[in-house]
Amino acid sequence: MIRRLNWADLPLGAPVVPVGELSLHRSLTSGLCRRPGDPSGVFWGVGDRGPNIKPHDAARRYGLTALEPLAVLDGAKIMVAPEIGPALARFRLDGNCVVLEARFLLHAPDGTPINGLPPAEQRGAETEAVFAIDGSPLPTSVHGADCEGVALAPGGRFWVAEEYGPSLLLVDDQGVVLRRVVPQGSEGRFAGSAVPISASLPVIACKRRLNRGFEALAFDPVRNVIYAAFQSPLAHPDKAAHDAGDLVRIWALNPDDLTFLREYAYPLDPPARFARDSAAGQVVPGDVKISEMAVLPDGSLIVLERVTLSTHLYRVMPGKPVPARFIDPDHRPTLEQVGQAGCGDHRIAMLTKQRIVSSDDHPEICGDLEGLLVLEGGDLLLANDSDYGTEGAATQFWRISV
């Protein structure tokens, strides 16, 4: 059984554009999770950096033709309303309806808002180019975060995954960011932050591709482990390795201090397997990504793998980890260079995938799915990332019995 649940987005205003209507609303479903002890039906979500759109799409959709030249810049985004940053949300299921109970803007302990601007660039760590709606460049920020995943942390708090650092934020249930954990050697990008910085993640995380950092988080309370997935193969040792890559790293971390434990190799589907996207145009390996994970009671993971229109849900059981040498950024060949075809030669065990459901078989389900939750009773709750309505999409929730 598949059904769409009732929901109404929270409006944020309508910036004036030359053509069409740009109507913004709050986006809160880049990641979803549940918290033990909460009332039945209550769950949590997190929204990403704020309303943004690619320069070419802004020119085509809204007549902002002056932005078109910015499209040649790698990873460039137009921040339509840079004053709008990420937020934590508490939802409640009420029959066939989803109700927003509370929304908390992320902020430092001293009240400094967390915004959606990227941190400064440093050697070995790229930074996205961001611009205002008039085409003027926007500054970097030590308080910027592009939040994409959320999972339970000790003490009823949350770990939030974000793409820029990439980093993991420890957040309480009022939206206070208590700590930011970043890759070793990258703490200088956040110097002066009102959020305490801890540089303990493996340095290889800095090899994330632009807009493809930490994307999915899941907490296994029985085995006391946090799983963190990158959105795509790392650009390691270079962008070409990402573009051709077909293995994504999933890390197992200690949930208390995010100490690295081990990593797993998740094999991405070939582009042609995403039928709805392939029918709409060419799909290349770099289009395929992981957007969300959830833990099942037996310790296996549900992984949400997608392009845009097509979403596949797979069950994988964490087993033999990737050999430890591949976490060393100086090791060659890298995991990304090895790829699926070379795993046998390098004695790398890939995760074995069991398909649960595919939106290619259910065309009524919308695209851009990013939120995933296992409900009480075993049903799945899916939600799309509406991108704050910048391209006309609305948030949709789907309940699936499998």
Automatic annotation (TrEMBL):
Membrane spanning residue stretches: none
Pfam families referenced in this protein's UniProt entry, alphabetically: Phytase-like
Coiled-coil regions listed: none
Phytase-like domain mapped to chain residues: 83-387
Name this protein carries in UniProt: Esterase-like activity of phytase family protein
Source organism phylogeny: Bacteria, Pseudomonadati, Pseudomonadota, Alphaproteobacteria, Sphingomonadales
